[in-house]
TrEMBL record:
Pfam families: SoxA-TsdA_cyt-c
Entry's cofactor comment: Binds 2 heme groups per subunit.
Cofactor(s) this protein requires: heme
Compartments it resides in: Periplasm
Family affiliation: Belongs to the SoxA family.
Record text on subunit structure and interactions: Heterodimer of SoxA and SoxX.
GO molecular function, one term: electron transfer activity
Protein name as it appears in the record: SoxAX cytochrome complex subunit A
Entries under InterPro entries matching the protein: Cyt_c-like_dom, Cyt_c-like_dom_sf, SoxA
Principal location: periplasm
Catalytic site positions: C247
Gene from which the chain derives: soxA
Amino acid sequence: MKTKMHRTVLGAAALSAFAFAAPVLADEDAELIVNGDLSIVTKTAAPAHLSDSLDEILSGWRFRNDDTQVMQMDDFDNPGMLGADVGLDQFAAVMGSEGKSCADCHDGPESLSTVRATYPKWNEAAGEVRTMQMQINDCLTNQMGAEAEKYDSAKMLNFEAMLAVAARGTPVNVAIDGPAQSVWETGKELYYTRFGQLELSCANCHEDNYGNMIRADHLSQGQVNGFPTYRLKNAKLNGIQSRFKGCVRDTRAETFNPGSPEFIALELYVASRGNGLSVEGPSVRN
Ligand code: HEC
Ligand code: HEC
């Protein structure tokens, strides 16, 4: 039950382009248990910083239809797990001029099991907020003498899927205070900025209208705890910032690129809106 009023204040252009309708599908009360034994928190109390706008936070899994939900309940049916397996192979493979593999310095993905839940994260030595991909690129280039990977490349998403599996079930807990705070504030501002001809902000869809239908899609809160996400639509793993790009493009706006300072800040902010949900990737979405 949503107890807070949903403010449906949309630009005139948005109203003519989209009609938000009451939901018809999806069992919002379903519970996600993976492989019959790993309980995933897909619904919990909103973190304190959201107390003015949301009472509870919900994983996108709750908004998908039964068939899509079921695919994520068993690793054999979850096509995203193939990426995690390839990620493991990549982890053991020698890359770059130093003749090193990730495994030469990191015991295994288990030794990195806190990463998925806590990134984006402030890196003191570099003096910047780093996403997982920025950190992996730092290891590739500065530790291994290898080429940097493009943002959201298949290789990067395989690494991310592997790190998500290592962290699966642990609560998302990104830090928003201390030195990361100003980046977080920038991300928050972007989240509430209306973009494009449709004059829609992330919040107009994912905060004011989640649970409603938009065209044929059941709108979720746009959480990122499930990333990387295997989308049935394009049959591959998808990254967080590429998803942001698609959403901004849908408002008919010029968009930022994955890896841009704007999307790094937005990723930190959106991740913090999911503090308390479980890491659930690789997830399955339509
Ligand atoms: C030559 C050693 C070396 C290699 C090879 C290496 N790393 Fe790292 N990695 C480091 C060091 C050093 C850190 C920083 C540790 C710290 O500050 O906590 C780090 C940090 C990380 C972190 C963040 C850990 C955290 O707790 O925040 C991740 C994720 C990571 N590496 C992934 C990888 C991956 C994936 C590869 C292979 C592509 C790789 N690393 C290869 C040395 C290495
Ligand atoms: C016009 C409405 C609209 C706007 C504006 C919008 N999105 Fe979305 N977004 C969608 C739809 C539709 C989906 C697919 C269904 C769902 O998961 O909500 C989606 C999906 C997502 C997802 C995937 C969620 C998951 O569980 O896989 C994320 C993350 C997301 N959006 C973030 C954002 C961010 C950040 C912004 C602002 C830059 C934004 N969206 C703006 C409509 C919108």
